[in-house]
Amino acid sequence: MSSILDPKRCDSVELSNDEIARYSRHLIMPEVTLEGQKKLKVARVLCIGTGGLGSPIALYLAAAGVGCLGLVDFDVVDYSNLQRQILHGTKDVGRKKINSARDRIKDINPNVQVVLHDTLFHSSNALEIVKDYDLVIDGTDNFPTRYLSNDVCVFLKKPNVYGSIFRFEGQSTVFAPHLGGPCYRCLFPEPPPPGMVPSCAEGGVLGVLPGLIGILQAIECVKLLMGIGEPLIGRLMHFDALKMKFREFKVRKDPSCPVCGEHPSITELIDYDQFCGIPQAKAAEEAAPPLREVSVEALKRKLDSGTPVTLLDVREPYEYDIARIPGARLIPLGDLASRMNELDTADEIYIHCKMGGRSATAVRQLQDAGFSKLFNVEGGILAWSERIDPSVPKY
Questions:
Q1: Which of 10, 257, 276, 353 is the catalytic position?
Q2: Euclidean distance between CA atoms 52 and 165, whole angstroms
Q3: pLDDT per residue over 112-167, tens digit each?
Q4: Is 200 a catalytic residue?
Q5: Model pLDDT for residues 282-317, shown as the tens digit of each residue
């Protein structure tokens, strides 16, 4: 495997004495040497996301001497991030993640140029952001960005180093059709419907897991830049932390892939909402009875009025143990179909979950069963904690 970089870019690059001392453990490796370190120095890598995966990726690429790191993120640091997002500390809560990440990277290696993209990665800006980088590392946790980063990398012929995590499992591979491998759409041609696959915020993730998967991504990045070893092109590495087991799966390029296939049907970046499946979801919503939303402030006024209402919590029991709204009745979403007989169709039922997604699904299920006085609590118990009762823990 040769380097993805043009070798001419390294011709005029030199390492200072300080850099030679800093990277000495690289320089004495016959697979790396001075030539390999120069490749890292001239490389430009874009990391989409500075969270769980982006943290180890950015930290180790900076320490390794990648010359320019671009960071894409628009979020701020929250306490719930600190269990796994090691780029950020307690003092950074409330700061922009890219600013916190920049400061940490500069502390690790002041030689690294850090370029900040304080924006949502979107079809309107993706081409402009990616075009100046040699390689993209996807450290995100949502399907819209995964499909978008894949498509833009296919169009611009950039390797896309992929990683994903959920609970105790993670996986990583390299998508690079221009190097003979598959792209993300070869593996998953279409995204799942909205809400079908829970996010880490809904399903949780073992805090140390993104450290391992992010490091795998960083290793693949370094190998591609230096042109050493066998990259994970056409191979998907899966890790199960509970079993402490790695498994490898072959991933082949799909000739009928809508983006990188022989006759692609997708030839330009798709609008952000479309490849979430959101239009289909909206069509389904229009055909269904209207979903009535209510704010946590309105719920508080209703509860304080003394009017008899049912407050239904559709989270899991272990979530209920962490935090609850006083008076809420617990029926987990997965049990709702078999326990509807415990509810009265004549009652006003206010339904909440953690953030509002599962409760909306519960409303739909109850509507289909003939319930009519239903209200979905916007923002769920997180909004209740933020705006009504701070004594209720956020998780």
A1: 353
A2: 9
A3: 999 999 999 999 999 999 999 999 999 998 899 999 999 999 999 999 999 999 99
A4: yes
A5: 444 445 567 899 999 999 999 999 888 999 999 999
Query: Hey, which residues does 293 pair with through a beta bridge?
Result: 376
- Give the residue extent of every domain in the chain: 7-282, 289-387
Render pLDDT for 179-202 as a digit per residue (tens, 0 to 9): 999 999 999 988 876 656 666 677
Burial status of residue 340 (CB atoms within 10 A of its CB: 0-12, 13-18, 19 or more): middle
Kindly name the residue from 47, 153, 186, 200 that is annotated as catalytic: 200
pLDDT at 276 over 80: no
Q: Where are the alpha helices (DSSP H) in the chain?
A: 17-22, 24-27, 33-42, 54-64, 97-108, 126-130, 143-156, 184-187, 200-203, 209-226, 278-287, 296-305, 317-322, 336-339, 357-368, 380-387
**Which pLDDT score, from 0 to 100, does residue 120 have?**
93
Indicate whether 357 pLDDT > 60: yes
Q: Is 34:14 a contact under the CB 8 Å cutoff?
A: no
Q: What share of the chain is helix, strand, coil (3-state, %, to 5)?
A: 40, 15, 45
CATH number for region 7-282: 3.40.50.720
- Contact call for residues 238 and 171 (beta carbons, < 8 A): yes
239 three-class SS: strand
Q: Does the domain formed by 289-387 have CATH 3.40.250.10?
A: yes
How are beta strands 68-72 and 113-117 bridged, if at all?
parallel
Q: How far apart are the first and last CA of the chain?
A: 45
Extract the tokens encoding 156. 């611009």
Question: Measuring CA to CA, how many Å separate 374 from each of 287, 307, 351, 357, 377?
Answer: 17, 15, 7, 15, 10
Q: Is 68 a catalytic site residue? A: no
- Same fold for the pair 7-282 and 289-387: no
Q: 326: which residues sit within 8 A by CB, 6+ positions away?
A: none
